[in-house]
C-alpha cells in the first residue's frame, strides 16, 4: 500500500491532503480510514479520474447524509470527477466514503441534490487511494508508449490491484471499465505546463507565505481556472491562474505558455485580515471572462474603463491600468514565457492622464513603500 511519502513523490507536496486526526476521530470513522485520512492522505487531483477541486454543492471533506441501495448512510465527500473532455459528467458525481462500512461510493447529483444513482467504487478507502496512486504512477512511468507497449505493464497492474480489491475491477464497475480502456489505449507523453514555474516565482518572492488558493470551476478557454491570494507586508498579492497553459494541455508553438501572461493585483491588507476583499477576486475573474470571450489579452501599457466602480459604491476607482509586474516580471516556463501583468485601479481622471502620458507616470504615484502599485479603493 502506498505511503504518504510515495503519494507526495507522484502528486507533489501540495498535491496530497491529510486531515486533523482529532477532528476525524470525532466523527466516528473506522480506525483504518482514520489512518488513511490523517497519515497517508488523499491526492488533490488524479488524472482524469478524480479531483478535490469542487465549487459546491458538496465540496471535498464535507459530511453529508444520503441513501445507498438499501439504507440511509453518512458520508464524507472526497471530491468529484476530474474536468476535461474525457469526463463530460465530472460535476454530476461525488466520490464519498461511508463512515459505517468504509466503502467508497460514487454518488450522482442533479440540480444540486443527490439522485438514486449510487455505485460502489472501492470496498475500502485504502484501496481507493491505492487505485488512484497506481493509475497515476502508470501514467508517469510508461508515458509515451503505444497500447501494445503499455499492455504488459497494465495487465500486471490489474492483477496486483485485483488482489487488493477484486470487486472493484469487475467488468460492470467504474474501475473495470476504466482499466479496459487502459488496455486498449497507449499512454500519452506528459507535457509540463507553467504551474511549477509560477509556484517557484511566487515562492521566491514570498518564501514564508501560506497562500489561499481557489478553483473557479471555469472550463479551460472560458476564463481563469484558479485564483490565489498571498500575504505580503501590508497588502494582498492576488494572482490569476489560467491565462497561461498551467498543465501543458495545449499543443502550441508560439514561444509563450498559453496566452503568455497572468494577472496580478495588490490591495491593502490589515494585520488581522484573513481573506482578501471579494470585489478584487471578482474583478480578476471578470477580466478572465473578458479576455476569453473577446479575444484580447492584456499587456503592459493597456488601459480600460470598468462598469460601475471597483469596490464599494463610494469608490472613485472606475478604470484599470496595466503594467508589467515590477516584482514578478517575466518567467520562463516549459511551454514558453509567462509575463505577470499587474492590474491597478485608477480614477477616470488618472485614466485620461495615463492616455496623455503613460501608465508608468500615473502609477508611480500609487507605488507603496515596497515599490509596487496598490489598488486602494478608499483613496
Automatic annotation (TrEMBL):
UniProt-listed Pfam families: SUFU (PF05076), SUKH-4 (PF14435)
SUPFAM superfamilies: Suppressor of Fused, N-terminal domain
Coiled-coil segments on the chain, per record: none
Residues covered by the Suppressor of fused-like domain: 231-379
UniProt name for this protein: Suppressor of fused domain protein
Native species: Nonomuraea purpurea
